[in-house]
Amino acid sequence: MAAIETLGDLRQSGYRSRPVKQEIRDNLVCKLRAGETLFPGIIGYDETVIPQLVNAVLSRHNFILLGLRGQAKSRILRGMVDLLDEKIPIVPGCEIHDDPLAPLCASCRARVAAEGDTLRIGWLHREDRYVEKLATPDVTIADMVGDIDPIKAAAAGLNLSDELTMHYGLLPRANRGIFAINELPDLAGKIQVGLFNILQEGDVQIKGYPIRLKLDVMLVFTANPEDYTARGKIITPLKDRIGSEIRTHYPTTRGHAMAITKQEAWTERAGALKVEIPDYVREVVEEIAFQARSDRKVDKRSGVSQRLPISTLELVLSNAERRALANGENVVVPRVTDIYAALPSITGKFELEYEGELRGAEQIARDLIRSAVGSVFTGIFDGVDTRTVIEWFDLGGSLPLSDSTSADEVIQQTRGVQGLRELAAHTGLKPGATAPAVASAVDLVLEGLYAQKKISRSEERGYGAAESAPRRSQRRDEVSLDEEIRMPGKKKYYN
Length: 495
Fold this sequence. Notes:
495 residues, alpha/beta, Rossmann fold, 2 domains, 22 helices, 12% strand, disordered C terminus
């Protein structure tokens, strides 16, 4: 293609233009035959969304992705660019990327007639053939389709009805490419009506003049479910003209969710500190979103975006990084308690029902964290006897730990808690694990027991006996005099 510089060269090469939908279909067929990955970076949709999307493309449909926020709708649309040809020939300088072999606009037709095979051609890269517009209520029909430019008419001495006086909108400028509209219901109803012709007949008419452009464009849309958006809705005739409606969804498994967050979150921090994120921390972060999506105090219609665990993990890591820097540690290992420092990234990621509003977003977020920790802890320690550690606290033991406590101090203070290190080993600690890794595993055990209400924790992160549990320490006849002297019934911090 690099050697093709004129219209004559293009004709001699045997190049044949294809409608954009046929071009995308043909390229998709080639990818399917070659077994290539479709839409790389999209996780969890292999058995649901992607097959429906492939069917829509094979059918040459305009389609809409319908789903709640944070379900990769925009990312999927931008991934459609990979199904376009790498480059296509155009008439240089044309606002609508006219095909030199079949020009639409009057200016290009005149140039082809005047210059013939000597007409210089340009090449348009696939990235420049994708046009995206976020629908807002202030969008006008002129923005989308175009208008008559009286200044251009006056300067050229043309009649206003002349085709050369047109100022093209976004839709004509997307000719021979993909035009994406995000949040379609936010588009005013009369603007949605303006899309009828391009969807059904494939042409647009500008400003009521008898000038029609037979555009070649694939229209794709995104929208939240109609029962959620209060700002507008998709008018029925427009929905009828959209070929396929594809429903997206949140990750269905914790594994898929962890893979998405690992891909999207900024955890590769540059610097001298080594970063190690335990799997159980990642699991707890993901479980918060799962718990929120099923909590009756959280508005289901608004959804809980996958951005919640992504931004939460970043803040969790930052809090662990801050602790490591303050304590002179060389390894950054997040703990479960670091998640509470990420409350600012959680409270703004969900809408609350009336009952949730009464409790407050921060308290709801704390409840979600505790539930998530309990779920992950149960999965790891199912069938493991934790009574030895619980009894240590019931006998009056306390641990004044916080998320800023250094790893060495955590290990030192918990050394006397019988059975605690053995339980920490169940988290998958490797022999010779670093102090921050051991401290993180110990922290999981303590937070897990607290989540299951088997021990308590004060606002200062001090762990003690469960307030609601029967105090086994009252059974003094089972405790030796020596133990009674060292650990009286009155609660005090363990040294």
